Amino acid sequence: MSVAASGAKVFVHLTSCVTVFGLLVWMSILLCHIAFRRAQSVQGVDPVYIAYRAPFSSVGSYISSDFLPVLLITIGAEVFVGDQFNYQTFILEQIGISVYLALYLGYKFAAKTSYARAVDVDLITGVPAITIAEEKARYEASQKEKEETNPHTYWARKLYRLVPWLF
């Protein structure tokens, strides 16, 4: 019985650490998306020509990046409830934040990297060499063709656009 209890305890701590690291990864993705959209707007790149556009654009990223730190802080909140503070549980549940910050700051210090300004970010390398006008004409023609060949009603088209956002 004691082996099963200790195994369950290890599983809970491991799950908590994985959750913290998952939230930190998503926080990094959101911050990268915000920086990309900022560079895109500063350099005047039209978001219509981006292959995938995030739902709710940068607003969704800002809202999520404000909400995720609240989740990170409250993950270990149950150790504060009750009459006894369990420091071991608190450390195990919050160790991911310290490890993440140590790795990130250690890399920044060792590699001596700095943040790229939105004006200096390279958004052109690797982009096909067709002109904006050709791309815009191709995009509009494909949209018109989709509308002509698609017999669905207005609401069905809206539903087909909504469903991919859910998954």
What does this structure look like?
The protein has 167 residues and is mostly helical. The chain has two domains: 120 residues; 40 residues. It contains five helices and no strands. Helix 1 packs antiparallel against helix 2 and helix 1 packs parallel to helix 3. The protein is flat, with a radius of gyration of 23 Å. The chain starts with a helix and ends with a helix. The mean pLDDT is 82.
How is this structure best summarized?
It is a multi-pass membrane protein. Residues 5-115 form the Amino acid permease/ SLC12A domain. By secondary structure, the protein is mainly alpha-helical.
Labels describing this entry:
single chain; 167 residues; mainly alpha; 2 domains; flat; AA-permease/SLC12A_dom; membrane; transmembrane; amino acid transmembrane transporter activity
- Which word captures the global form? flat
Euclidean distance between termini CA atoms: 41 Å
Main sheet characteristics: none
Portion in strands: under 5%
User: Uncertain spans, ≥5 residues at pLDDT below 50?
Assistant: none
Estimate nothing, just give the exact number of structural domains.
2
**Sequence of secondary-structure elements:** HHHHH
Give Rg in angstroms: 23 Å
Helix content: 55-70%
Number of strands: 0
Give the helices and strands, then pairings.
Layout lengths: L1 H42 L13 H18 L12 H25 L20 H18 L4 H13 L1
Helix pairs in contact: 1-2, 1-3
